[in-house]
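Lecture 7 notes. Example A: sequence first, then its structure tokens.
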Amino acid sequence: MKIRSMKLREAHKNNGVSSYCTILWDLTAEHIVTASSSDASISIHDALLPSNTPRFLRNHRDGVTTLALSPNSSCLASGSSDRSVKLYKFPGGEFESNITRFTLPIRALSFNRSGTMLAAGGDDDGIKLINTIDGSVARVLKGHRGSITSISFDPKSEYLASVDSFGTVIIWELQSGTTLHTLKNISHNTPPDFTTLSALSWSPDGEMLAVSGLKNDVIMYDRDTAEKLFTLRGEHTQPVCFLAFSLNGKYISTSGLDKQVLIWDVVKKQDIERQKFEEVISSMTWKPHGNALAVIDVMGKYGVWDSVVPSSMTSPTEGGPTLDSKKSDGLLFFDEEEKEISTSGSMSDHGEEEDSFMNSEQPTRKRLRNFKYDEDSDDDINDMSLLPKVESNKKRSTADVANMKNGKGTTTDVVMITGPKMQEAFQPGVTPVQSGKRRFLCYNMLGSITTMEHDGYSHIEIDFHDTGRGPRVPAMTDYFGFTMASLNENGSVFANPCKGEKNMSTLMYRPFRSWANNSEWSMRFEEEEVKAVALGTSWVAAVTSLNFLRIYTDGGLQRHVVSLDGPVVTASGFGDELAVVTHSSPSLPSNEQMLEFRVLNVPNGTQAIRGKLALTPGSILTWFGFSEEGQLTSFDSMGVLRVFSNQYGGSWFPLFSASKLKKKDESYWVVGLNKTNLFCVLCKSPDKFPQAVPKPVLTLLDLSIPLASSDLGAEALENEFIISNMHLSQIQRKIEEKEAMGDDDTASLEDEAFNIEAALDRCILRLIASCCNGDKLVRAIELVKLLSLEKSVRGAIKLVTALKLPNLAERFNTILEERLLKEEAIETKTETVCVNNTTTKTFISPEIVKATECVNEVQLTSPSFVKKKATENSTTKIGKVVELKDTKLESKGLVKKSNGEVSQQRSTNPFVKSLNNQEKEKSSSVFDSLKKFKKNEK
């Protein structure tokens, strides 16, 4: 057969680098859409007049890796290396929304037949099924170990097929979200640069799945049994990297790494036409009505191959397959062709279909699978990883099917209304069970607890990161099958779930040091099981499936049993404080978890804090605990770390976001944190947790608030400024708590606060310099008002003077003068004189008054921190002598004695009033009036 060649025109400038490019043809055949993984823009070309300038959509920050058009061509979806999936109106190209985000680049998108469901996958672990009506994530399908390179919805809306970079194909059943078939190593591996991808596609009638094979061929598999039907081979000399069925399914086009495109007759299993290109064709699309094929190569050049199928053969659009529109979608809960879609995405009226179903013939195996659940049930729009296993629901569904077969079923028999599923309980620092491998029962800043199952029992070991700090703990043989643990300096606690009626849930505590020989203890629970455990200074806590919070002493005494308001999610302890997270209400329809936390002081039996737990939309809680300083902290599945602060009445502040680091193939398994660093284990994709052997290496990441891109260009300084303010607020709260408890030993905290204030002032001065260089003078004035120390304000004045900004220096001087006047007024108002606890006679009144102890506080120059005077530490010392000029003594009413004692006149004294009436001259001093008083007294 003669090989022809054709010329292509440039659509994207890849700068001479091979990149994966995508091409689509809309339903009207008037527009061709192209994208390149090296270009952040999407091009919409005029298919009728290719010479016209295309329309560009520039909404992504990085290269566009994949495109998808809805079946009616009204909606365009794009995925990118910037980890976002965006929707646009088509053909206008108006941006609609960021429908979802991933933590790693997206590689594949696909719409279902009705266009209301979008499947997205890539380097992340999982395929997201997104409801395009409300933007909610309907389900996450997990099972691939490599990057997902291609996704295809079954035209009958029963199955979804996907292939990963390792050549593994999985066929998913949409109704249940489970894996129907897994075909390993049947497709070639994807190159590391992702210039070409493994490909698959359903035939238009949905009866066959075509997959690019290992032997430069294309293999066809049966839709239900996944058995190999036949193979198209013998013509490509290198692996097939893309394939596409014609609209009628009679032909299939294949592109290979040998730079050829072949057209195959599917029935005859032989190629009928081919084209040779200068570069590898990475994507193709058939013309919706006509005999043409649009192609694009890895260099970003595209073209249209006319008269693809010989004129003597059937047109590629003639005699297309017809699908039964009455069959249930299985996931979308409506008929695509004849049902009206409501705003919630459900059917407006489905009674007729149920009646017709009950009057029809007995259902086959496939149809029974369609009607296993009611079409309006919300049970199919949830993340399968979050679904609790409810055995009763499965049994009820089987019984309903049996009733249908016997003709006894009614429409209410199969209705199961359930909302979005809530997150299951978890223990921080635990890794999942891996057969034959050691795993972590606990991993925190102190050490780790590992276990490995062997011959029906497990071997548990406890290791400390600092071997010189922690005690040597002997290994333990576990006959209970513990699945969770917690560790602190005093001991360790273990728990296991129920394993049948005989093996009850058990809680066991092992102290590290004790004067008694048999100091460990255990508890057994009937008809309930432990969901989370926590340790404190002298207590052990366990939360059970009955929403009971059980608190024990470290000796095993049962102290309290508290009923919680909702199902537990997790728990953590630190010193005297116990933090518990529970569900406050069912999840939202968008699958957002509604969580609540409370912090309890166990020895006092009080509740310190209670509130809502903040989470990134669409995420779940993956870690929860305290920092080394005792700050409550959470980490969600979207990679956002939050710390609870008393600011703004108690709020969560994000201190770290994994998306800011832009690491495409890394995830973070949190261990703990301190003031400045996050301690975690870096996990390479697709792993989400570390292996226990070899022991993982902790990585320190700087805390970085996810700030917006500022026009100042000083994000690092702004980040330091906010974090320092937060630390200062926490120290102030601790000082206030100590003062409320009557504890005056706050010197160390005051010193720490002063050091933070000094560091904060240095940061503010650098920000002021940035503002001056960036001509942001108003912002500089706002910053100088936040300086704590007078010395810092004078430094700011010198700074702007050196930068030759006299107007700004004058404003800074005005701010300094106002602050000094204000501080002087405050000192005048609050300053009192401390003397020994002896009686003294005033010079202006015969009354005897006792000198009280100095208990008033003097404000520092810092606007955010109050510090006591040094004289407050001792009541036996004489008060500090305040040396003032005569003019200040006159204005403040102070009298300076020879022995250093100072007495303050009270403005309410009647003698002062009469004296003021008699002496109207403003320049008379207090000493003159004193002399006159002594003469009169003699």
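Example B, a different protein, same format:
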Amino acid sequence: MKLVKINLVNHDNCNVRDAKVLKMSYPELDWRASFQQDFKARKSLFEASLLSRKSIRLSISPTIFSDVSRSNKFQFISRLIPNLSEVAQLEAILWRNGINKDQLTQLDPLPQLISTESFLPIEWFDDYDYDPMSVERWLSIEGLEGFALVQDSESREWTWTPVSVVDYDAEKLRWIVEVGGQVWEIPRIRLYLLYEDPGQYSKRILFAVEQRNYAENYLRYSYLSRLVDVGEYFEMIESTRDRLIERSSPDVFEAFNAVYRRFHIGLSMNVCLEQNEWLNIQPVHMVCYKSQPFCVDELRALYSFGERFALIKRIILLSHPAVYNALRLVHYECDVVREMSLFVTEFPEPQTLAAFKEANEEQLGKVMQYLQNAWIERTTMQVHKSLLNVGRGWFNISITSWTIYQFMKLYRLIEQIKHRMQAALRDLVLTSTDVFCHRLCDPCELTLPIDENYSWEGSLIESPFESHKTPVFYLLLHMGEQAPYFSTDPDEFLPCLETLFVEFVEQTHDVHLIDPSLFGSLIFAPNLFLSSMGLRDPTIRGRRDHLRMSYRQCVIPLKAYAARYTEFKTLFFTNITEYVEDVKSTKTSLQVKEEISLQIRMRESLERTLPLSIVIGSFWIDVLPLRTALIQKRADLTAALLKMLTERLRDKTSDIVFDYNEIIERMCEKPASIEHIYEIHEFMDTIPELLQQLEERMKTVVFEYEILDHFRYALPDADFYQKWTALGMPKAILNQIESVHEFHEGEVDKFRKQQVSDEAGFASRVEEINVHISKFTTVYDVAKVTEVSIEVKKLWKTINELFQYGETLNKRQELFEMAAIDLSSLVELKESFVGYKNMWIFAAEYSNVEESWRKNPISSVETEVVARTLFHYKKCFGDLLDLFEDQPQIQNVIRTFLARVEQFEPHIAIIELLQHPLLEPIHWNQLAKAAGIKVKLSVAANFELFLENHIEQHSELLRDIIAKAEEQKEELERIKAAEEEKRRKVEEFNRNRELRRLKRTEI
């Protein structure tokens, strides 16, 4: 048996990792506080040892390594020659020495008391005496390489990989290496450098593994020993204690008594561990005070362990693997509860009180459903499954007697499970209420110092109560008839939140014990519940009081802020119609101007002083709807006043224009007699005085229009035209007076002079039209064919109208027995203009027709109509060439359009090809691909598209495609005919066979 030397005084000075990794399921011991207190000292010793790069050894070390000297570890490197060249060689050496990757990488995330899984990092036990060179010497080697055990980022597998050494981090004690462009920080024990001995590297790993195994075993042994160290079971006998007290001081006695207890507990524990191999903890054999080692047999000869071992079995619950397994599973279920939360406090955005309450009630329902059902069922199932096969004895779950049950270890085990579950339940309440109160109360910290008489005196935009914490609740500010109010009454928050707090804490008392569901043979009271945190608990009561105080204070500035908006109540409820009518009936135009200016200033003030939103404590207040409504009300009042002023001016201007129109209508009446003419003349003498009166009225109206211009108000078009019509009326009327006088003179002599004036007017018009035609016939711009043709039609119409008017005058000449008017010049003018008119009209018509052929789809173009039309215009333009043979410029115009006609003639054949009925989409694609056309072609495309892609250059290709299509059609028809012939023959054969069968039947 392996003997172990142990230092009873310094047995706790072993290097361990963080306490979070060592959260073991130890029963009957609150090990966390004592362990973390010892951990600080252990960690400081470990870090000091690493920083000095000394050999890291446990103060408790097996004797198998006690004789290892530095000479056996030291490597002398005379030449820098790599010992290995491939990763496979290193893996083979490590495998032969019994080393695998799991020993260097895997750690148990939740270490257990009797587990064999490692939970301490291997690098904590690395012995730097195995390193042949210092760090500085290694880094001085250029291009230093090695093999490192790294984890792949995708597959998460650990593999030995060739690496290049980059640097060394002295603070972290990590080697910095580069692997495929990635930089890793590797501990030395997972890094093999090519120049060191692989055998020594294997010993280095084995030494670290052995040291870690012993340290983990001793940690488990040490905490298991503490489970036994209870009561006075291991005290000295009274006679020995009395003699020691008489012969020594109290300090010496206490020190010796502690050593005595630990020594005898260790001796008893070793026997217990040998009897219970399922614990997977190796005994740590003790020595006497003279440090002489004894084996177990020698110790048994000196001491009697029967009573001690029986005592341990009576004291400790861990007398069967099933008990430990049950406690481990219960601990796991309790940790699940600890991770839960009774409240929901984190939201992506502020919530209304109703939404907040609904979310938390839903969360409580889920949590309580789990606590009252799933948690109890799962815990009962785990305990029942673990203890089911234990059978009769201390942990017989089939017990039927209450008296016996209360004296069994099972009773203690169930009590401990109850306390564990209660502790988990209390932790859940403490954690949940802490998060709840902090989340809700932290934003309210700035409101705590204010008193109840606080009034909001500062700006409405800047909040002195805006915390760096995110607000929790959402409020919308409204304007009420009595006072401003929020979408949710601020006084509702405190009762609601306090009710949630109280109900949630109270409901955690409704979780049953597992006893009734675990023991079916015993009778339990129906009101057995786990004990949770009560409302009178100081912590819960303090948090509740803090919540109450926070929201009692936070509501004060909230109400004060809403009260500030009372000043806008009158504006908010102002009736626009009544307001405008009041202004209209009581104020002049200048006063209206001042009122409009006031409304504009007040609107701008609202835009500057009212916020979109504001934060007060834990409340996010949405002011935007109210702000928008107030600003819009000011804007509506301004617009209503401007509209009222506009309507007022419209009525005044309309009256003035009406008076002007009356003057014009009376002045321009058609006289029926000479007396009527003189009456109109008398009225016309009074017109200047009437105009002066109306102009005075209009000046006052123009002054009021300037008010609208001051506010840059855009008048409606009708009002704008009416205003300027009224301003221009006087001049128009004065001009009209002269026309009326002239008109009256003509009326007096109209029967006598009308004919003469008409004759003179006719001659003048003939001369004018002749001059106009002379200028117009010099136009030769082909690009303006449409405009010229329109003008030609107008001229032709004017000539015809003038010719008819001349004939009418000749008829009147005959009636007045006057000589007839000579119309020969007008006839010659008409005959000379016919050819010019036809040229431009034909040109315009042909341009429109050709454009329709180009723009319309190919399928809608009729080639016969195109051919007839081309022939017609070709003949027309040809006749015009002969007519204008002495005018070369006009002939050039005609030749231009004649050339367009001749140029389009070859396109008829292309159009006929494109309209071929056999062209399918596949043929269009072939044509587009062969011709290099990138757009989709079809019979629905217009001819312009084909012309733009120069389809005339691919006519042969188009004919070939059509020919192939026809061949395919003929082939299909031939195949179809052959199939039809075959089908016909088959039918005829079947019919003849049926006839033969019928004949045989008759025979």
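Note on Example B: The two ends are 115 Å apart (CA to CA). The CA atoms of residues 38 and 691 lie 114 Å apart.
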